[in-house]
Write a structure and sequence with these properties.
It is built from three helices and four strands. The chain is an alpha+beta fold. The protein has a domain of 75 residues. The strands form two sheets. A two-stranded antiparallel sheet has the order 1-4. The chain has a two-stranded antiparallel sheet with strand order 2-3. The two termini are 19 Å apart.
């Protein structure tokens, strides 16, 4: 399965989409529902940062797409951060959704 943007998007749109997507996945929602809610977040907040800190209003809510050739079950609600695995703990510290620093992949 691939989650992508159908066209070029702003960093602020990608950050908003990923924040909502990960938040919904960790709230035990399925991937289609998480994508739908991410699109809805983009639809409800159309202001995007452009060059030179200019804010523009964009209709980019339809750009997030999912490609899959079979059903994928993703239950992130059971994931917990353990102190036993310090490497994972260090990687998880890099996920800071409030400052919009979101890694592309977290794992071993």
């Amino acid at each position: 399965m691939v989650v992508a943007m159908g066209y070029s998007v702003t960093v602020s749109a990608a950050a908003l989409m990923m924040e909502k997507l990960y938040g919904e996945l960790f709230a035990a929602r399925g991937i289609p529902e998480a994508i739908r809610l991410g699109r809805k977040a983009l639809y409800n907040d159309k202001n995007r940062k452009a060059y030179f800190n200019e804010v523009v209003e964009l209709e980019d809510w339809l750009l997030p797409v999912v490609y899959a050739n079979k059903a994928v079950i993703c239950d992130c609600s059971r994931l917990r951060l353990s102190r036993k695995n310090s490497t994972t703990a260090r990687r998880m510290r890099d996920i800071d959704l409030r400052s919009r620093r979101i890694p592309l992949w977290v794992g071993t």
